């Protein structure tokens, strides 16, 4: 992993612990992007002649990486646009289960559209809280982040798979932006009906790209009948009228989606199992050391498994102090968010811990 750090110029002068805010641009991706635009510069509209084949190849790469089928991959500039398009096609009388304090792109999107809403609490027993809320409120839809953006609490994937077996009629919609790229994942075996992700964090795809994965037949189930009826009565090309066209309306940027594909291939070369193993060891060390310093909330300490995101006790003054020492983090919630990727090392954490010891 240490050899790969040379790909990321930011790391030569910063201890970068902020992937949950933005993944990094790296040298070989920059080369791809420059060559892409050079081809566009030289070719003009001729450069776009093969865009459909190119974008289909992007979908295949996404499907292969996440265990989906090509036909059920939709390209979207970001998770939020895809999620709002889904909500716009759903009956407002549906009851939606949310997690309290989940990402605003989920919770505000649902509540602002007038859905009937109920909540489960995010704490050390989040899985039990979800199950209790389903028993009590009997929702039609469960919309949630796989990993909480403030404190990093992650819903157990095996729990979700079993939960779907128990409640096959509930539509599970997951935001995986803070998850995808941190460990191996098989969408088709997950029990999740719809999974969305923006590509600019752990996937290192840069901004302006994302995707939605749909389980078999789900696109048909959530497409308004009025849309389907209109599509059958027109002679327009299917690129305007297909079920996917609701999400992929207008032009798709080969620069942005090509960047996502390039980075998925980059991660594949490293090996997602290798990344997962590295992250597990690094995050176990981080949790252990943060716990010793009493920097983590009790709900996180009590969890057996955790994600790549931590929120440690701290304020604006500490955040500025860390930045002064070239340690890049984010202020989130009531503390300072630390987030780790494969380009981080134990030495990065030791530098942070040393600064924290001396600061305190």
Write up this protein.
With about 350 residues, this protein is an alpha/beta fold. The protein has two domains: about 1-25 and about 270-360, Aspartate Aminotransferase, domain 1; about 30-270, Aspartate Aminotransferase, domain 2. Helices cover about 45% and strands about 15% of the residues. The chain has 14 helices and twelve strands. The strands form three sheets. It has a seven-stranded mixed β-sheet, with helices on both faces. A three-stranded antiparallel β-sheet has the order 9-12-11, covered by helices on one side. Strand 3, helix 4 (about 105-110) and strand 4 form a beta-alpha-beta unit. The chain is globular, with a radius of gyration of 21 Å.
Task: Summarize this structure as a short list of keywords or feature phrases.
360 residues, alpha/beta, Aspartate Aminotransferase, domain 1, Aspartate Aminotransferase, domain 2, 2 domains, 7-stranded mixed beta sheet, 3-stranded antiparallel beta sheet, 43% helix, 14% strand
Largest sheet: 7 strands, mixed
Q: On the 0-100 scale, what is the average pLDDT? A: 96
Order of helices and strands, N to C? Answer: EHHEHEHEHEHEEEHHHHHHEHEEEH
Count the strands? Answer: 12
CATH superfamily of the largest domain: Type I PLP-dependent aspartate aminotransferase-like (Major domain)
Shape: globular
**Percentage of residues in helical conformation:** 40-55%
State the name of the first-level CATH class of the largest domain.
Alpha Beta
Annotated CATH architecture of the largest domain: 3-Layer(aba) Sandwich
| Arrangement of strands in the largest sheet | 2-8-7-6-5-3-4
Give the tally of structural domains.
Answer: 2
């Amino acid at each position: 992993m240490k050899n790969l750090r040379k790909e990321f110029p930011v790391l030569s002068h910063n201890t970068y612990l902020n992937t949950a805010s933005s993944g990094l641009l790296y040298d070989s991706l920059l080369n791809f992007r420059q060559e892409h635009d050079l081809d566009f510069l030289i070719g003009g509209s001729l450069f776009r002649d093969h865009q459909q084949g190119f974008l289909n190849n992007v979908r295949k790469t996404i499907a292969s990486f996440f265990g989906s089928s090509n036909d059920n991959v939709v390209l979207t500039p970001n998770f939020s646009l895809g999620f709002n398009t889904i909500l716009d096609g759903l009956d407002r009388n549906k009851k939606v289960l949310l997690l309290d304090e989940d990402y605003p792109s989920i919770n505000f999107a649902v509540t602002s559209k007038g859905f009937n809403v109920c909540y489960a609490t995010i704490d050390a027993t989040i899985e039990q809280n979800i199950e209790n809320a389903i028993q009590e409120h009997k929702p039609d839809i469960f919309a949630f982040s796989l990993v909480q953006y403030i404190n990093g609490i992650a819903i157990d994937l095996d729990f979700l798979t079993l939960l779907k077996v128990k409640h096959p009629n509930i539509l599970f919609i997951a935001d995986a932006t803070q998850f995808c790229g941190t460990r191996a994942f098989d969408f088709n075996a997950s029990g999740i009906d719809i999974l969305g992700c923006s590509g600019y964090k752990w996937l290192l795809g840069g901004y302006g790209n994302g995707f939605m994965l749909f389980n078999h037949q789900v696109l048909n189930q959530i497409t308004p009948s009025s849309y389907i009826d209109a599509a059958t009565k027109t002679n327009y090309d299917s690129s305007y009228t297909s079920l996917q066209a609701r999400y992929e309306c207008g032009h798709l940027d080969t620069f942005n989606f090509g960047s996502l594909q390039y980075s998925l291939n980059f991660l594949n070369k490293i090996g997602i199992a290798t990344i997962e193993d590295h992250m597990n060891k690094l995050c176990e060390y981080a949790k252990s050391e943060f716990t010793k310093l009493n920097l983590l909330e009790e709900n996180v300490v009590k969890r057996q498994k955790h994600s790549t995101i931590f929120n440690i006790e701290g304020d604006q003054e500490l955040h500025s102090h860390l930045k002064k020492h070239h340690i890049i983090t984010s202020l989130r919630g009531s503390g300072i968010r630390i987030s780790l990727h494969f380009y981080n090392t134990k030495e990065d954490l030791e530098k942070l811990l040393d600064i924290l010891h001396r600061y305190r």
